[in-house]
Design a protein that fits this description.
six-stranded antiparallel beta sheet, binds magnesium ion, about 350 residues, alpha+beta, 11 helices, about 35% helix, binds adenosine-5'-diphosphate, Rossmann fold, D-amino Acid Aminotransferase, Chain A, domain 1, single chain
Length: about 350
């Protein structure tokens, strides 16, 4: 390859400090293993020299002083593992004039606010669940009666604030959950959203609209092994608690979508990718409503990069090995940076 982007710094969350998306807010063996697999996969790519930076105390100095040719922004935890500071790192790289993979700060801001994503999607003709925005300071007794509902924070990632009890079927459950949410995540506005009981699908993409957005095969979340009585959702337990049936009994499988449904989901994905300004890769989560229609749940710019994450599964369904998935993301950013001059 003849491009001038050879010295690549891969930046990630900081394992040495607290992280709210992890069990007990700290990193564990499984996180170390995914991190090592990621580093090994990058090191196997030819034509690049990789630096791996995760210590946030030194991160800003390293970026400024060492000036890599391009940064792989895998810091999806936010600077100092503070989710609302995810956008500050790409903003800083823009100030330094260093190109980076993935979404701009603007796209991150938009997509971190699920109610805003929903309104933008709706305005573009994308089907979305009914929902009520419930501010953190609204009196609990004014909560609307919408059942069954899924209650979640408007702004959060990694299923923080979504537990097995977030599916509510009556007023007592709704008030209990809202109360718990307020105690656990003070000040965080909530969504009381139409519960989508059908199959859950993910659409993953790599690339950019002007050079080609590559659709990966759709993924379906397989809840069929989950013990009876547990609500089928990708709760916090599914992402952070290896002992929970939500972790052990939920699998990912290739979705078998009717052609018209697949075309619709992919069309919505393309439209939203462009409109919200995602770059290089993204993952769009949909779920089928009670009336049989798939609706948008959320958009993930810079989706999870781990070798056991949904994007890696989708790439695997297409026969793309993990290191090649990482290469495709990197190449999408390199192509973009080259065009930018
Ligand atoms: N309205 C809904 N109906 C049914 N399940 C939902 C709904 N919203 C979220 N979920 C479940 O919760 C999971 C996490 O929700 P999501 O909005 O994607 O949050 P996060 O950003 O934390 O991934 C989804 O993957 C899905 O299983
Ligand atoms: Mg999600």
């Amino acid at each position: 390859m003849t491009h001038r982007f050879r010295r690549i710094a891969v930046i990630t969350g900081d394992p040495s400090i607290a992280d709210p998306t992890k069990r007990g807010a700290s990193y564990h063996e499984e996180d170390r293993l995914t991190h090592e697999a990621m580093m090994a996969a990058f090191r196997s790519l030819e034509g690049y020299e990789f630096l791996f930076w995760s210590e946030h105390e030194r991160l800003l100095d390293l970026l400024r002083d060492q000036r890599p040719d391009l940064v792989v922004n895998f810091c999806d935890t936010g600077f100092r593992n503070v989710p609302t500071q995810e956008l500050n790192l790409p903003a800083y790289m823009e100030l330094l004039g260093i190109p980076y993979t993935g979404a701009s700060p603007a796209a991150m801001v938009l997509c971190f606010d699920k109610a805003i994503v929903r309104l933008v999607a709706q305005s573009l003709g994308v089907a979305v669940p009914g929902e009520v925005y419930f501010p953190a300071d609204a009196p609990l007794e004014t909560a609307p009666d919408l059942y069954p509902a899924l209650i979640k924070p408007n702004a959060a990632d990694g299923s923080v604030g979504i537990t097995k009890d977030s599916v509510v079927r009556n007023r007592a459950q709704a008030l209990d959950y809202l109360g718990w949410l307020r105690a656990t995540l003070p000040g965080r506005d909530a969504l009381i959203q139409e519960y989508l009981p059908g199959p859950e699908y993910g659409i993953g993409v790599i690339g950019n609209p002007d050079t080609g957005l590559r659709m990966l095969p759709a993924l379906e979340v397989d809840f069929s092994r989950l013990p009876a009585g547990l609500n089928p959702i990708l709760s916090f337990e599914s992402k952070a608690m290896p002992d929970s049936p939500y972790w052990t009994d939920i699998k990912f499988k290739p979705a078998k979508l009717a052609t018209d449904v697949e075309n619709r989901l992919e069309g919505w994905t393309r439209t939203l990718f462009r409109r919200l300004g995602l770059r290089d890769y993204g993952r769009f989560d949909f779920r089928v409503a009670a009336d049989g229609e798939p609706k948008l749940m959320e958009i993930n710019p810079n989706p999870a990069w781990a070798n056991d994450g949904k994007l890696a599964f989708m790439a695997g369904f297409a026969g793309i090995e993990y290191h090649d998935m990482l290469r495709l993301v990197l190449e999408a950013a390199v192509a973009r940076a080259e065009r930018a001059g």
